[in-house]
Amino acid sequence: MEKRSDFVSLRDVSKHFGTVRAVDGVSLDIAQGEFFALLGPSGCGKTTLLRILGGFEASNSGSVHIDGADLTIEPANQRPVNMVFQNYAIFPHMNVRQNIAYGLRKDGLSKAEISQRVDEAVATVKLEGLGDRGSHEISGGQRQRVALARALIKHPKVLLLDEPLSALDKNLREQMRVELRALQQKVGITFIFVTHDQEEALSMADRIAVMFEGEVRQVDTPARLYEAPASREVAAFIGSMNFFDASVVGAEGGKIIVDAGPLGKMSMAPPEEGAPVKGEAVTVGIRPEKLTLGEAPPSAGANAIKGKLTAASYLGERNHFFVTVDGMDEPISVASQNSSPMDHKGWSEGGEVWLTWEPAGARLLRA
Amino acid sequence: MKFQLPSWMRGGGLTTYAVLYMVFLYVPVLFLPLFSFNDGIYIAFPLKGFTVKWYEAMIETESLQAALFNSIRVAASVSIISTILGVLAARAFTRYRFVGRKPTLGLLALPLVVPGIILGIALLIMANRLGIPLSLFTIGAAHVLIATPFATFVMISRLEGFDSNLEEASRDLGETGWTTFWRVTFPLALPGIVASLLLTFIESFDEFILAFFLSGTDATLPIYIWSQLRFPKRLPVVLALGACILLFTVITVAFAEWVRRKGVKLTPKSED
Ligand SMILES: Nc1ncnc2c1ncn2[C@@H]1O[C@H](COP(=O)(O)OP(=O)(O)OP(=O)(O)O)[C@@H](O)[C@H]1O
Ligand SMILES: [Mg+2]
Q1: Which of A238, B7, B31, B267 is such that its CA lies 20 to 30 A from the CA of B14?
Q2: What is this model's ipTM?
Q3: Which residues approach ligand 1 with their CB closer than 6 A?
Q4: Domains, chain B, ranges and CATH?
Q5: What fold characterizes domain A240-366?
Q6: For the segment B208-217, what is each residue's pLDDT rounded down to a tens digit?
């Protein structure tokens, strides 16, 4: 069967709390079986959007469709959607098995069938042998597994997860990223996953929607979000980037020529949403690891800029530098991998250095 | 060899103080059961011998039985009504953050600290003005007034930290609002409800001042006891009755406290 690319479909969804526009005109299509992340800073409306999908919050306008069915006003208990709450919401008066079986009561199953389904769910999340434990006799990681099993046992069309890893300690969190991803691949259910941790989103998701102030600003694969951010704010939120104010001075053979002040003139690929016109103010963005630091001036024709090394720190697997350039307020951040022991040279702070970069390493962004 | 104080006199006399305190607190109370078994109508030493005849007389007294029955009826109604009100109020206080939450909570606690005699007079005047005849009903209404804050605080302490996500999780898993109440909210609140029922029952059952002001022709047990104190011969029966009430109250309150503490904790252990 063909997998729908608009399995979950949000059209122009908005939710206001008084004057706060928690979710503002969001449209999204999420494919069947996709691991989809909602990423954004605190308060940007991720949880609210997830709760609208779960049926816990009524949107003020817009529509929600799942698998072709209009669920916009469907109550939470009627939706083919289940949720893993941020604090897991394990029922304290029930043991692990009772928690996992909670949602099966209405399905008209026999005792034996329920027991079998619970066993399957317990095995899926690797909780064997803990079924009779009380809700207070399991660890944080195990609570998360109970919450997962309790939701997955319902065979939902979509599983919603609100910051599912944030309650775990760091080591467990990194291990669970891998496990959660593997679990999703195994069960094949569409996962929509909220996080404010970009590393988490990049490492787990098939696609990521970046949200700011209630709006979705970019939806893309992790690699494209990092390599081809659509705007300055997305670029700054995902990883770090050096920004240079620039203006368009012309076009040549499908490329845009910009004048980026101290960086000089350069020719760049236009952004996908359309080429800026001559005279328009734009931004040139270069990630720290796309810059190369050298002591000798580069050969003619290369993109290069001269500066002064103001800080150098050795960080083990990489070195990090700050370089100040005449005519710029902010120092430029440069990162280099320590791929051989020789890379860790004794850079002298205050010395004159050259920065070079590949043309493809610089991105043209709308201001 | 160095002289040492016996252990109970050490610690700057604090132990002594504590022991004396307990003696003054409990010995007079313990005289009640002691003299209720004494074969004589005067409360005086030496004891005259062991008897249960006062208890027999107590059981046979019809006016006492009527008062007991009145008290139970009032206390049962009060405990049910004030617990329902308490559950609803506590749910509002613990679940929602509304304007005036703190002041309302303070106002609610007021009947607990207003002297009973003031409240009694005020209610009596009001009943007269409104032309409400004094009866067991007026006593019950006054008791609901003082028992509801009590029930509310018992329920707040139970529902504090009740995670509203639990109810949402239940709905997420297919239950309606009503079935969620019975499968999640009620079982988790139950220890508080039982404790509240028992404690408000006792509060009404033992209450004297309001009942004294607001009673009509039907007496509750404390009023009956008061009325019997005029007859010296009946004193041993009152002592027997007092001993029974004492025992009943202590057991009920201890049980209520046990139930309240025993219930599952609502918040998970904090993670390490
Ligand atoms: N029930 C509510 N009443 C009023 N305002 C709300 C309510 N829920 C959310 N908001 C507001 O809506 C905005 C979005 O909140 P939301 O919880 O969706 O953010 P979030 O992206 O999940 O943030 P976080 O990462 O901190 O969880 C915030 O400004 C928040 O204060
Ligand atoms: Mg949130």
Answers
A1: B31
A2: 0.81
A3: A 17, 20, 22, 40, 42-48, 196
A4: 53-261 (1.10.3720.10)
A5: OB fold (Dihydrolipoamide Acetyltransferase, E2P) (2.40.50)
A6: 999 999 888 8
